[in-house]
Amino acid sequence: MAENPLVSVIVPVYKVEKFLDECVASVTGQTYRNLEILLVDDGSPDGCPAMCDEWAARDSRIRVIHKTNGGLSDARNAGLAQSTGEYVYFADSDDTIDPHLVEDCLNALAQYDADLVMFKFDTISENGRTLLSDYKHNDFDEVQILTPQEGIKAQVKSEIDGYFWAFLAPASTYKDHDFSFPVGRKIEDMARICNVIGESTRIVRIPKVLYHYRLRQGSITATLDPKLNRDWRRAADDREEYVERRYPELKSFMKMQQLNFFANLDYETIRQSIITGLKIDPEDADAMRRRIEGLTRDVEGSDEEMPQATRELLDLLTRSMDEALDDVKDSFQDVREYWHQLRAVWAQKATENKAEAEARAEEKAEERARRKALKEATQPGAGLSHADMKAWEEAWDES
């Protein structure tokens, strides 16, 4: 590592007026000063473009790239293409970073002779309050040193999250391997995370919380979209294709993990379709089912043992679909109708629960009225004897 290397910090910007200043301030406030800060205005229709220009006028390290809207991947690609630093870091414009993030990462790379550094993160609300969270990614308290193969296995097993803001890497990892984010799709981090891990030679994970991930309703990942099913599948396939090509010795491992992933994704697709009424394309559902069947055959012919939990999930999916297809065979249009019927049952149950709650509320109101009347009857001057009060209570109970 060169002494005092230039670090490029790439921040895609789109419709984040409320959070942009806080984000950029956390970047410019880094204790490590040799930064190139690229604010990529992705055709934001609000005041963000002007805010970016104002920041550039205040800090000479900031450059603004104004472009037509193309999505997060396209904005990241634009920033990456114009970056000149020896190292590259990506941040999201609605989040904030710890003042020591860059400094701590560079120190860890030098201390442990690594070329990829990862760290912990926490979650914050829209108003910046720290939230409780339980990510497996953060489940370590000592420095970890991993080979690329170990890093890939941990990522595929969800022990390392795929967020690109959760690590810092050399620019060569991207520029020497024809790297680009997939444009026009979501779940772009998962689609490319193993490309970065796989081109490293030594990974260090430091147990420091250096990133503050804001959970908000308007974010990309918080928005329900039926097309997400397709993007999840494509991201998982991209990841598998890279790993099997770059590390063929992990092929059996990847088949087993892909089967587990798709089985869980398929189950979640059905569950969300029932709960939220998402209109999943029958062709997407068919493609998912065929993918699972193919992976099942691959795994059964390999030396990877299928976990019992995965077998049980596959059995559950099979039973669910068999019940749905008793009369309609493989018609996914009828499967969707079956899901609709399940939603109707749930809605009926919700109506019954509401009626029961209203009845309980009415009973409580009557009880409060009885107690109020009893209290008034026992006030001085009410003229009721103990026997009268007892008879009055019994008459009330009977009524």
Automatic annotation (TrEMBL):
Residues 356-399 are annotated as: Disordered. The keyword Transferase applies. Residues 356-369 have a biased composition (Basic and acidic residues). GO terms for molecular function: glycosyltransferase activity. Residues 8-136 form the Glycosyltransferase 2-like domain. InterPro entries: Glyco_trans_2-like (IPR001173), Nucleotide-diphossugar_trans (IPR029044). It holds the Pfam family Glycos_transf_2. Keywords: Glycosyltransferase, Transferase. This is Glycosyl transferase. It comes from Bifidobacterium simiarum.
